[in-house]
């Protein structure tokens, strides 16, 4: 099975490295010419993942057409750019494995829904879970969810992507895998705020638990399965990204908790903190569906410049309620 990768950031590069195990050829598309040059000439991604020597069987290109003969393409472009990138080439019936985590602004569509519009012939899968790119690229043990629209796709695809230290668990719950990955980014910003504002470990644990309740409510309302929300792409990814400065979203939240503005923090980033774009879209979608998501709403308020103390105070002053609600 020939693998292509769309996206030359840290995560796309890490997935290319996994896919190249056993000296398998992998074609990686990147928009940055310096990434293409450093991978092809020095077998390293100097810009986004300089710490990991890459397999010499990874070839980088800036021509998306070069990926058309792949059997499966891992789509690792940022969520807000997936539509634009995939609109430029017809991939026919190729399997597209969505690795971006987010909800499209404006349309409020999940990535699978976007792909169904721009690549109607493609077969869709979602790869999601607790994954820091530098750990995956370094070969540290990792488990992920591989959700396939047609479960018959799972075994051949999982077999091809499984490495010595990467284990994909299968499901047909594409929606659940996507929602877990999108919502956890927003909640990770909130946990970063707790860290940056020195609100304590009790507060972080409470936010993770109540945030997971919100994630599950939203997921079930969109047709996800409860088991998926409690699995690697839901709870697993949530725990990881809410606990480490290696998470771009958590780091953004730390800055907000220290009193910096979102505009200031986002302007100084080479990589994308997807939660900053997903938060307002998630708030709109939840409000339209009548789903109570106070933690996610609070993160939106913080991104919009509301004072941390006022936002936390409002959360704590909410009417008392049954935990199961």
Describe this structure in words.
This protein is of the alpha/beta class and 325 residues long. Helices cover 48% and strands 12% of the residues. It has 15 helices and 8 strands. The chain has helices spanning 10-19, 33-42, 82-86, 111-118, 133-137, 154-161, 174-196, 201-221, 226-229, 232-241, 248-257, 262-267, 274-289, 294-303, 308-316; strands spanning 3-6, 26-29, 58-61, 72-75, 95-98, 123-128, 142-148, 166-171. The protein has an 8-stranded mixed β-sheet, sandwiched between helices. Strand 4, helix 3 (82-86) and strand 5 form a beta-alpha-beta unit. The radius of gyration is 19 Å and the shape is globular. The termini are far apart. The model has no long low-confidence stretch (mean pLDDT 95).
The spatial strand order of the largest sheet comes to 3-2-1-4-5-6-7-8
| Most strands sheet | 8 strands, mixed
Instruction: Spell the H/E element sequence.
Output: EHEHEEHEHEHEHEHHHHHHHHH
What's the N-to-C terminus distance?
A: 46 Å
Q: What is the strand content? A: 5-15%
- Helix proportion: 40-55%
Tell me the Rg in angstroms.
19 Å
